[in-house]
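Notes to self after the Tuesday call (sharing in case useful).
The group wants a holo model before anyone commits to mutagenesis around the pocket. I volunteered. Ligand is 2'-monophosphoadenosine-5'-diphosphate. Logging inputs and output together so the record is complete.
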Amino acid sequence: MKTEICISIIAKTAEEAIKGLREAEALADITELRIDFIKGINAEKLKRILENKTKKAIVACRTKECNGNYNGTSNERIKLLKSAMELADFVDIEFETDSDAINSIIKNRDMINNSTKKNTKIIVSYHNFNETLQLEKLDEIYKKIMKLNADFVKIVTNANSINDNFTIFKLLRNKSNLIAFCMGLRGHISRILAPKYGSCLTYASLREKMESAPGQLAAKELIEVYNFYRINQKTKVVGVVGEFAENSMSKHMHNSSFRKNNLNFVYMPFKAREEELGDFIKNFMEFNFSGSSVTVPYKVLIMDFIEEIDKTAKDIGAVNTLVNKNGIIKGYNTDYYGAINAVKEKINPKGKKILVIGAGGASRAVVYSLANENAAITITNRSMDKAKELAKEFNAKAADTKSLKQLMRENDIIINTTSVGMQPNAGQSIAKENDFAQGKIVMDIVYKPVFTKFIEFAKKMGCETITGDRMLIYQAIAQYKLWTGQDADFKTMESALEKETKR
Ligand code: ATR
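Result:
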């Protein structure tokens, strides 16, 4: 069965629900009406709403005990669900906590369907808002629900770790009537990959901030960013592993390029904590994911978990790209390629005097790439010992940040590699306005926001500027090639990123 997107409609009035229904049906094949949120809902109102549907609809009326909002009597609710059996395509009932509905609806389903001449299907749902139980326990729940004679089983659990998603993928194996995914920010991959692993439905919100469950993505985002309707069992999975991977812009660049080149790949955030990395890499290999970007703060740490490291990445001392090469995971660094190409858009760095501010992981890739071009590099950093160490490794000079103004005058190119000025601290700059001197080339590797305070000062003082999105695009282009073997379409990536950074 093809996985469909189900949009949940939470509305306070019947009119609002009808409006929601129309909007949702323009995006998805199936809607879920949470009638427990509609004030004074009764059979007549329900009929009025459902008369407007043109596609399939699920009706759910959850009580407070089932994390719903219904506050009428049990009898009234059962009456409503019986009406739903006449009018809707599916009725959703909660497992365990909803014995009233289970007794009156499921047990009498055939009788109800015979008398209404409909073939309304029953979904029995298990929600766990706290955790994802072990596979064996979830399998037991599935079996218990099947014994109730449900048509479809829905198992939705909270992901406390990226690795919980893989439990759900395993649960989905060999079951054709299961809807299963994880809730929460850490559960996104199970919602996106529902068609790959065989969940009958994935639930989405009508718009951002209209979620009916934690971590629900907007339908438009699933369709337009993740190319949801193109995902199938053969889709190759890539993503970005990071502590705050959900903030990454790369999904826009890669997914739009996959669409443009007609490649069956999908890119998504792998939001993981440090202690989850080991198991994540095991799952990544077991599920044969194709590759990943690596972002803050794992570019160095990830090296402990992988089998092979490319020479350049080793020399730089950081990995920002993982590639699954026939079952072996190999680490690469494409940040250096990003940095050098971004600089070269404006100037050939050969023999130029370059000041690099910062001596962290990102700085290493920048310094490596410029040292390869025989530039004369000076590194300055808040922690002087780190600047000295890096300078020694790459035959550069280290200088005290106290002389920043002077250093910015002595050098031709000035590059900020620190995180200063990055959201949520967008108003900050590592250098003051009058530290900048006219005619210099100034680059910031911070790309969120694209126009940082550092860049703003540089422009004001008459410098040429290179914004952080340039390095981001070039490093992504190199990653794309490593994963797919094909060249990404530069313009597609550029405009996908531009669209997002302007938002
Ligand atoms: P990344 O991988 O993004 O480079 P990192 O390795 O943590 O991250 O490096 C962050 C860089 O930003 C370092 O150079 C850091 O300076 P320290 O080495 O002194 O920590 C610099 N940095 C971060 N916050 C800073 C601040 N408020 N002022 C000055 N430098 C800062």
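Two things stood out.
The pocket of 2'-monophosphoadenosine-5'-diphosphate is lined by residues 296, 299, 358-363, 381-383, 386, 418-420, 430 (CB under 6 Å).
The first strand starts at residue 4 and ends at 9.
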